[in-house]
Amino acid sequence: MNVHAGRRSSDVKSWRMILGIHVANIEWGEAITILKRKLDDNRFTKISFLNAHNANIACVDEAFADALNDFVILPDGIGVDIASKLLYGAPFPSNLNGTDFIPAFLKASARPLTVGLIGATRRNADEAARKLAALAEQHSFAVIHDGYFAPKDEPEILERIRILRPDILLVAMGVPRQELWIARNLTKQHCILPIAVGALLDFLSGSVPRAPGWMRTLRLEWLFRLIIEPRRLWRRYIVGNPLFLARALHQKFFGVREER
Predict the structure, then answer these.
(1) How many domains is the chain partitioned into structurally?
(2) Each residue of 9-35: pLDDT tens digit?
(3) pLDDT over 80 at 250, yes or no
(4) What is the β-pairing status of strands 168-172 and 114-119?
(5) Are the CB atoms for 215 and 221 separated by under 8 Å?
(6) Is residue 108 domain-resident?
């Protein structure tokens, strides 16, 4: 693996370290320009996002943290903005959460692209592909497989990806599985931009509702998700958010190691 290739990407001029993970300090339009340039130059680059939940996992999962060092990491959510204000005196320039950023990026990319989708249920992936095709008609979208497969199925799935070789591969398997799967399996022979997108396909399909616009404006989408899925998400938000902030305070006053 090309260690630290992600955070040393020559396109990104400024980084902020959040709990040992280097996050691109860029605004919305710059992020779109950088990803377009990587596609135009055919530069294999892994993309993921850091939010409070991912950062907490990276603190206790060394394999996940090491994998993230080979991704370009974009800032996602109010948690990392609060941490950035604590550590650097200002939030990130833009909230580049994948649920909003990826559809916007695809719509803004005029050159026709092939986009592969893998993950979620097959029904949700198919519906997400239809929604994206309507949003960005210039691109071709192909569902490769759902996210429920055994290791014995991987060679066939990887061969399908290699034959298609999409410009972009949206990988929706949840954290940390999706990033580890990308890190362990995908190379420039498979695609140009593999992007770990979490629940994006579920949101696009409509199977998981998004918060009303006013809640998103107030940066309260996490609260909406907690209200509609309390059993599944209470630990992530009720326990995880304060833990993340405590870890950010620890970084501020005691620092963290630059390398893992």
Answers:
(1) 1
(2) 778 989 999 999 999 999 999 999 999
(3) yes
(4) parallel
(5) yes
(6) yes
